[in-house]
Amino acid sequence: MARITAGIASSHVPLLGVAADMGKDRNAYFTPIFEGYDWTREWIAKPEVKPDVIILVYNDHASAFDMKIIPTFAIGCGERYKPADEGWGPREVADVEGHPDLAWHIAQSLILDEFDMTIINEMDVDHGLTVPLTMMYDAPDAWPVKVIPLAVNVVTYPPPSGNRCWALGEAIARAVQSYGEDLNVQVWGTGGMSHQLQGPRAGLINAEWDNMFLDGMVGTTQKLRTIPHIEYLRETGSEGIEMVMWLIMRGALGHETRALHRHYHVPCSNTAIGHIVLEPVDGTVPPSSTLEGTNAAAQAAI
Ligand code: DHB
Ligand code: FE
């Protein structure tokens, strides 16, 4: 049976990809940022921790999708994904290898569980996905893990609610638990923390609110799931809404979590960088009424 063993949340600031690619990650500006990930790099390389697959929740920044198509929740079921060209040419990092079999299983389970996912077989992936991989794994010739991209619309209004994201995470946990092969699966949530990239409030940072959010990822509290969009906008700037993606990861870890590592630093480009590593203490998630009911036979047949 596949198992969700840990969750990671991390900002996905594009400048960090540039710093790593140019070998500047240990200069005076970037050292306090990259140092915050040293613990995680050592931890994730341990044989007993090393994931086989990451379900990587991120948002596309008009690289694969644009105003022509705006899926609220999309799952990548492809074999591989290339780094997107974000204006300076594609980053010279390894292609991302998918896990089509598990991805299709999750897509089927989620849709029967009444989460109407968009299925993507071909797309390029931008800094939202590749920068967190760089922060955790440096620059290997091939990423040491398979990745199932799960893209969330947080760019064009309306993004999904935090509550819906949390519930999607719970449905992902049910999907992973019903996959027969013994796989070590991690769920990552990326984006945030407080930042606003444009307009009169550009550069806004709210360390107090960000730390309240980090606190809320730990333990049994579910108070983060009811934060309304307007509070993210007011307190954390227009791009702070990316943090709803962390709640998909948190929902997937179940009833109770423990923090293994936590890091917060300002400034990082226009952003407060935040990063937390969580372990499920009690990974129980509520049962799905749908999977237990009308779609049970179909689900059992997967
Ligand atoms: C920055 C942060 C982001 O999350 C992003 O998608 C683009 C830019 C920044 O801080 O510069
Ligand atoms: Fe972003």
What does this protein structure show overall?
- Keywords: Dioxygenase, Oxidoreductase.
- GO terms for molecular function: ferrous iron binding; oxidoreductase activity, acting on single donors with incorporation of molecular oxygen, incorporation of two atoms of oxygen.
- It holds the Pfam family LigB.
- Residues 8-272 form the Extradiol ring-cleavage dioxygenase class III enzyme subunit B domain.
- This is Protocatechuate 3,4-dioxygenase subunit beta.
- By secondary structure, the chain is α/β, with parallel strands linked by helices.
- It has one domain: 3-Layer(aba) Sandwich (Protocatechuate 4,5-dioxygenase, Chain B), CATH 3.40.830.
- Helices cover 32% and strands 23% of the residues.
- It has 11 helices and 11 strands.
- It has helices spanning 14-21, 31-34, 38-45, 100-112, 127-137, 162-177, 207-216, 229-236, 244-252, 289-292, 296-300; strands spanning 3-10, 53-58, 73-76, 80-83, 96-97, 118-120, 124-125, 146-152, 184-190, 256-268, 271-282.
- An 8-stranded mixed sheet has the order 6-3-8-2-9-1-11-10, sandwiched between helices. It has a 3-stranded mixed sheet with strand order 5-4-7.
- A hairpin with a 2-residue loop joins strand 10 and strand 11 (271-282).
- The model has no long low-confidence stretch (mean pLDDT 96).
- It binds 3,4-dihydroxybenzoic acid and fe (iii) ion.
